[in-house]
Amino acid sequence: MHNRAAVIAVDWGTSHLRMWPLDRSGKALDCRKSADGMRTVAKNDFAAVMDQHLKALGVPDDIPAIMCGMVGSRQGWQEAPYVSVPCNIGDPALGAVKIKNTARDIRILPGIANRSTENADVMRSEETQLLGLADQMGNALSGLVCMPGTHAKWVRVEEQRVLDFFTSLSGELFAALGAASVLKHALDGAGGDINADGNMFVEGVKQSLDEPATVLNRLFSVRPKSLLHDLNNDDAAAFISGTIIGQDIAGAKARFGDTGTVTLVGSGHLGALYTSALKIAGLSSQIVSGDELAVAGLAHAARLIWPERFNTI
Amino acid sequence: MHNRAAVIAVDWGTSHLRMWPLDRSGKALDCRKSADGMRTVAKNDFAAVMDQHLKALGVPDDIPAIMCGMVGSRQGWQEAPYVSVPCNIGDPALGAVKIKNTARDIRILPGIANRSTENADVMRSEETQLLGLADQMGNALSGLVCMPGTHAKWVRVEEQRVLDFFTSLSGELFAALGAASVLKHALDGAGGDINADGNMFVEGVKQSLDEPATVLNRLFSVRPKSLLHDLNNDDAAAFISGTIIGQDIAGAKARFGDTGTVTLVGSGHLGALYTSALKIAGLSSQIVSGDELAVAGLAHAARLIWPERFNTI
User: Quick one: a GO biological-process term for this protein (chains A, B) (predicted)?
Assistant: First the structure.
């Protein structure tokens, strides 16, 4: 029972929902995870699904909730229109949109967009992780933030402002080639075992940095190498991973130049691969676990929106 | 009935088999197409499948056959080991491997390989198209040959010699992103309708040539553009096509430099897209239909192997 929670924090994405009752210091008292992602919830059922989870946690009706994620997209519960760059990291919190027609006070954090025609881009949920980062790091959060994943985000941050960002199709390219290309056998089940300091990963990164134009050939190259030089599947997967991560970093350098230490939001294996690749690219990095950033960002936003519900820090 | 055919030409690939009885001038008398590709034929059944098709064409046992394609790979009927670059365009014909234990004289053309560890690559069936090109063009075949497709080949040719080549994962990348990525909806069913001179295709090509490092971002960019600027699926598909073809050409320029007019083996739509993209890249091109190159190459090879079966030219 969480009838004394200060606020409920909710990260409601496409495939999952996570819910944390927060105490008056902003600390999570519990975490409820569910597969009731946006994709499986009909437009008119968001309120009912939300209520059901809050009931299961024993949260009374008068406790407000702060949400982030695709639930605020056009296809979600209610659209929370993007804040445009450049903006303050706290702007999405200040621009949180109140859900209509609910007894409970529920707000959705907007994402952030670059609305230019040339560099149009969007993020939704990463702005909350950035808010969590700013909460942890304050003004030390400066330079480039790298958030690897299916759609990796590279964010240019300075003095608590988001100056610009872009998304790259890195993780999803690895997955798509593993699902539907001649690389299928090599990439099948790979990923978790790649050695971040192994020769093939390092070579993939280096070639992407040295000659980014030839990436389509380099992606194919593991196939003839397996035929002619007995390249095994593990080494092929490591090379492809290095090629894609190296290309991702080459793109960030081309777009933003060298902006000092990269703050790398990641944990576990992917974080280790990007740390190694950034080092090869001559960029120092500091790694921050992404696991708790969403709840930290939601807590930070809740404190800005409902200061009276929290202890003074 | 083709009981007076000089030779049987066979292109036996992964998914299809094509068979042409040739007359004494090397001209195809007929064309038999079948879905009995290598993939569906068990290792010990090649001879039976071959006989069955030859019977259907009414070809007697004493007429020899020349084959190309994956039937000569390690997983095929009998391996025809790759000829290494640099080599003469006619070397695969001279190195054709005779199938063991068949009454009929059947030869398989080997593919061509670059066996270096750095630029390892293989082709199998394109060497026969090159032979067909050489047959048609003679010494006018010089510079770069571009053979677009699932795995596009770029071949450096000079004075009837294959100096080097590489493969790029261009067509297959377009297909894989259409099958298994956030671009699925945009690319679904696209391809045939892309305007080779349309703004979005041209823009995709230009950006890949100008800044090849940022390709992972540019592949993603159509998604936010559809959200923020109502980019429609047709324009998104055109941009992705231009991006991939532009990146392919940027890779060829990085690898081989500018080698004069590009001989583009293609027909129909993909040929038009590459012609436009090569022009944007400042490369002139001459387009040659690929449809009849395989049979022309097989006829050329058969004439080298069994000169007595053909009329003197």
Answer: D-galactonate catabolic process
> Which ipTM did the prediction report?
0.95
DSSP A178-237: HHSSTTHHHHTT-STT--TTSHHHHHHHHHHHH-GGGHHHHHHHHHHHHHHH---HHHHH
Chain A positions in Cβ-Cβ contact with residue B258 (cut-off 8 Å): none
pTM of the model: 0.95
Average pLDDT along chain A, 313 residues, taken 10 residues at a time: 89 95 96 93 93 94 96 95 97 96 96 97 97 92 95 96 97 94 85 88 98 98 96 95 98 93 92 97 94 94 96 81
Q: Where are the domains of chain B?
A: 7-125+294-309, 169-282
pLDDT-based confidence at residue B131 (cuts at 50, 70, 90): very high
Tokens linked to A302: 């809740």
Q: Do domains A7-125+294-309 and A169-282 have the same CATH topology?
A: yes
- Best B188, B217, B247 residue to mutate vs chain A (most A CBs within 10 Å): B217
Q: Please choose, from the candidates A90, A83, A69, the residue with its C-alpha nearest in 3D space to the C-alpha of residue A138.
A: A90
- The stretch B274-299 carries a mean pLDDT of 95
Contact B86, B163 (CB under 8 A): yes
CATH class entry, domain A7-125+294-309: alpha beta
Partners of residue A223 in chain B, C-beta under 8 Å: 122, 167
CA A119 from centroid of its chain's CA atoms = 19
